[in-house]
Design goal:
Structural class: alpha+beta
CATH architecture of one domain: 5 Propeller
CATH superfamily of one domain: Tachylectin 2
Distance between the termini: 72 Å
Shape: elongated
CATH topology of one domain: Tachylectin-2, Chain A
CATH class of one domain: Mainly Beta
Oligomer: single chain
Largest sheet: 4 strands, antiparallel
Radius of gyration: 32 Å
Number of strands: 32
Length: 437
């Protein structure tokens, strides 16, 4: 190797050593300067001189060095002390957001931010932060705070004589002997002027007025009329509605196009299946008239609207007991009574006079500890303790107090409850900005 080359290599190594030493020295000096600024600010804070501590801590927090987090935490404390001053709430939130956006963000930062918003009556903001924190850290304390905050609700002002279970973001209501439709925001969609009304589906409902049965749209315009000898009807779902013609139930479309099969009784479609009775026995039929459950049972468990099928299972009644069926095969134990599954969550079942909950495999997931219960809808189940109803979460904890005379399942963020004013809708505040449970 030539001497000139060796000289260049040696010079390069020296430059690298000098550069490395400069970095270390600068880093050390930055940390020392950072610590000096923090100490100066702390002395001011101890004397209650918060405003002069701000620029010191902001400079210290601006360095990427050993004491950055300490500087940030001290700065947040000062911002909170000055929170009533213009601009400081935004400074505090900006710093919290910076900490939460770090890849290794600690769960305590999300808890701090959520508690700040909760104390400021900004529930939706707090819940959004908690959801983000849970997704990012999976911390149990965040889950606990979220579960303890997410079920705050408001009660709608309008009251009715009755409100049916919510379906498709709408509910049938009864007022002064007449029926109509409201949505989950409490807005009247179809006025209460009908003797009977179906569920609202595909922008229409089937109604009866002065004995005439026809379909109306969301603006209450008549859009279809049946001229057959129809004397009654069930609930509309999946563009199917049962019509009572000459003593038999026939399926029809929302435009009253009749199917060929006839039944002694018929439920409401859900997930492509509905309960039906022939020759005194009940089964479950699909949209093409094929039997999922053959008609050989004393009954099929249906909810208030007539739905029986969800999560691939159905409850049948036989010999005084209720059994869970999946693909035509019994699973799990026998029960005294049950409520159908919804699209998600556990089902309420009764044994020895008490209600508990099972999952769709038949496994018991919550104890038989309630006087009455409905199946879960949106992570909440209506339960009765003594005379009053409230709601539990999926862990079995009461999260909406038992203060209602009656209560029905949640759907679309709302649920019908019976209060001293009559039937009213309650809506979870978390849903007011479109969040999902």
């Amino acid at each position: 190797m030539k001497r000139s080359v060796r000289i260049w290599i040696c010079m390069g190594c020296c430059v690298m050593m000098v550069f490395s030493w400069a970095i270390v020295t600068n880093s050390k000096s930055t940390s020392e300067k950072q610590l000096m600024l923090i100490n100066q600010a702390t002395a001011l804070v101890n004397d209650g001189i918060y405003i002069r501590a701000v620029p010191l801590l902001e400079e210290a927090a601006g360095y990427d060095a050993a004491h950055t987090v300490t500087a940030e935490n001290e700065l947040k404390r000062v911002y909170l002390a000055l929170i009533e001053n213009r601009g400081f709430p935004r400074k505090y939130i900006t710093l919290l957001e910076k900490q939460m956006n770090r890849r290794d963000a600690d769960a305590s930062v999300f808890i701090e931010a959520a508690n700040y918003y909760l104390s400021s009556s900004k529930l939706q903001d707090a819940l959004a932060i908690l959801r983000t924190g849970i997704d990012k850290t999976g911390d149990a304390a965040l889950v606990t705070l979220y579960e303890g905050s997410r079920y705050a609700y408001e009660t709608h002002r309008t009251s009715y004589d009755n409100i049916a279970m919510i379906y498709n973001q709408h509910a049938q209501v009864l007022l002064d002997g007449k029926r109509g439709i409201v949505n989950t925001e409490g807005l009247m969609i179809i006025p209460c002027e009908y003797e009977k009304i179906s569920t609202f589906c595909k922008d229409r409902a089937i109604v009866m007025k002065e004995g005439i049965i026809y379909a109306v749209d969301k603006n209450n315009n008549r859009i279809a009329v049946t001229y057959d000898d129809v004397s009654d009807f069930g609930n509309l779902a999946e563009n199917r509605i049962p019509l009572l013609i000459d003593g038999n139930w026939r399926r029809a479309s929302g435009d009253f196009e009749l199917g060929t099969s006839a039944f002694e009784d018929f439920g409401m479609y859900c997930g492509g299946y509905a309960a039906a009775r022939v020759d005194g026995k009940w089964g479950v039929i699909d949209l093409s008239s094929n039997w999922l459950i053959p008609p050989e049972y004393d009954g099929i468990v249906q909810d208030e609207l007539g739905r029986c099928y969800a999560q691939g299972v159905v409850f049948v009644r036989s010999g005084g007991y209720v059994y869970l069926m999946k693909d035509g095969i019994q699973i799990g134990a026998a029960y005294d009574d049950a409520q159908p599954f919804s699209d998600e969550g556990y089902a309420a079942v009764k044994r020895n006079g008490r209600w508990g909950f099972i999952d769709a495999s038949g496994a018991e997931v919550l104890p038989f500890a309630f006087d009455d219960a409905l199946s879960f809808g949106q992570h909440l189940a209506a339960v009765r303790h003594g005379e009053y109803w409230g709601y539990i979460n999926i862990y079995g904890h009461i999260v909406i107090d038992t203060v209602f005379y009656e209560a029905k399942s949640f759907s679309g963020g709302s649920a019908p409850v019976l209060t001293e004013r009559g039937w009213q809708l309650i809506t979870l505040l978390e849903f007011k900005k479109g969040a999902s449970l």
